[in-house]
Amino acid sequence: xxxxxxxxxxxxxxxxxxxxxxxxxxxxxxxxxxxxxxxxxxxxxxxxxxxxxxxxxxxxxxxxxxxxxxxxxxxxxxxxxxxxxxxxxxxxxxxxxxxxxxxxxxxxxxxxxxxxxxxxxxxxxxxxxxxxxxxxxxxxxxxxxxxxxxxxxxx
Length: 155
Hints:
Blueprint (H helix, E strand, L loop, with lengths): L1 E10 L2 E7 L9 E2 L1 E4 L6 H13 L2 E15 L5 E12 L8 E7 L10 H12 L4 E8 L2 E7 L2 E2 L4
Parallel strand pairs: 1-6, 5-8
Antiparallel strand pairs: 1-2, 1-4, 2-3, 2-7, 5-6, 8-9, 9-10
């Protein structure tokens, strides 16, 4: 299993999004910033390091919002620790993993994102409490989702 972080930095009703150009399962998808844990890192250690590496920003106000369990028929199970942030120091730099763009929250659903991401974006907008979300994929298709132990109806 893999542990990762993902952070959505907020400003003026927009999120800083990464248009991924890496040749991996996220190629051409729009994501937050983050990555894999290094040895001995906590979720907070990882999100701070990954955000600095990818954006040049040092987070000064951030919140741990939830944990998302990705289950796939093709890839290893991933535990993604989800954060939002609203204060930082530094200037945005060029990212070698793709293009960093401020995207209006109302336009995110129209971008190429994972189906499960639409669920947690809704949770980020609606709820302040910590949540646990399990997303099960067959290939690139979301087939099952569970929020805080209760199955969700997929449309």
